[in-house]
């Protein structure tokens, strides 16, 4: 089984890199433009398609990605062919004017099922798709995070984390403190698997659950993060 798996992995063709995976267009700076870079890591040419989508996140963390309305961005190119080892820039320019809070989008970069090889009998081709993050923001925008306990059922605690601010916040190295200064419980790291590192977009709420002993619904809760 292990030998078969190694053979299978050796036959898979890994496609390309997208860098960086997250960027922000700041209104009034750098011509309101960012550049992503895509690099062909293969020994064969490949076709790439690029598009943009709005990023709407529900309380469960699932995303809806409706098509961006015409006139918001200049995106160039939208399709390209990369030679082996070639790097190309993808230009994204904001055309949508002023905003009242940070807008979140996805840049979608995916390999097209076009085979440029003359010999098409070798290996398994894995078509990759990147979902990069793109924000349109202002320097004065900032997040405003609040957390509350919504229910406790035995050792299962449900919380809601809200961002009433104007900028997204990634909950990096999250620590949750329940109670008060005299009597408190804190949780971090593995205790908060599935919560630590999550992204709360501007104006959005996220619901989470985790196991914890000693927490009750009446407790206050504070979120600390980097």
Your description of this structure?
This protein is mainly beta. It folds into 2 domains: 2-137, Immunoglobulins (Immunoglobulin-like, Sandwich), CATH 2.60.40; 145-224, Sandwich (Immunoglobulin-like), CATH 2.60.40. Helices cover 4% and strands 49% of the residues. The protein has 1 helix and 21 strands. It has one helix spanning 2-11; strands at 12-13, 16-19, 22-26, 33-40, 46-54, 56-57, 63-64, 73-76, 79-82, 87-94, 103-111, 124-125, 129-137, 145-153, 156-163, 169-170, 175-179, 184-188, 199-200, 205-211, 221-224. Strand 14 and strand 15 (156-163) form a beta hairpin. The longest helix has 10 residues, at 2-11. Mean pLDDT is 90; it is low at 1-13.
Stretches with pLDDT under 50, minimum 5 residues: 1-13
In round numbers, the mean pLDDT is 90
CATH level-two architecture of the largest domain: Sandwich
**Overall number of strands:** 21
**CA-based shape:** elongated
The fraction of residues assigned to DSSP E strands is over 45%
Into how many domains do the coordinates divide?
A: 2
Amino-to-carboxy terminus distance = 43 Å
Supply the number of helical segments.
Answer: 1
The CATH class designation of the largest domain is Mainly Beta
Which superfamily, in CATH terms, is the homologous superfamily of the largest domain? Immunoglobulins
Query: What pattern of helices and strands is seen along the backbone?
Result: HEEEEEEEEEEEEEEEEEEEEE
Helix content: under 10%
């Amino acid at each position: 089984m292990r030998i078969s798996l190694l053979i299978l992995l050796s036959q898979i063709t890994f496609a390309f890199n997208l860098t960086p995976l997250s960027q922000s267009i700041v209104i009034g700076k750098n011509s309101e433009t960012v550049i992503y870079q895509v690099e062909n890591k293969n020994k064969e040419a490949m076709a790439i398609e690029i598009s943009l989508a709005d990023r709407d996140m529900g309380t469960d963390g699932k995303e809806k990605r409706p098509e961006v309305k015409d006139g918001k961005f200049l995106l160039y190119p939208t399709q390209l062919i990369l030679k082996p080892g070639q790097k190309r820039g993808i230009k994204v320019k904001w055309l949508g004017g002023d905003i009242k809070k940070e807008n979140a989008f996805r840049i979608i970069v995916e390999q097209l099922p076009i085979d440029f090889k003359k010999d098409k009998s070798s290996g398994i081709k894995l078509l990759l798709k990147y979902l990069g993050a793109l924000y349109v923001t202002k320097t004065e925008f900032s997040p405003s995070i609040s957390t509350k306990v919504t229910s406790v059922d035995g050792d299962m605690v449900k919380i809601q984390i809200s961002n009433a601010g104007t900028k997204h916040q990634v909950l990096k190295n999250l620590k949750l403190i329940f109670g008060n200064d005299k009597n408190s419980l804190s949780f971090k790291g593995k205790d908060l698997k599935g919560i630590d590192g999550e992204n709360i977009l501007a104006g959005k709420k996220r619901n989470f659950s985790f196991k914890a002993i000693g927490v009750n619904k009446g407790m206050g809760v504070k979120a600390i993060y980097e």
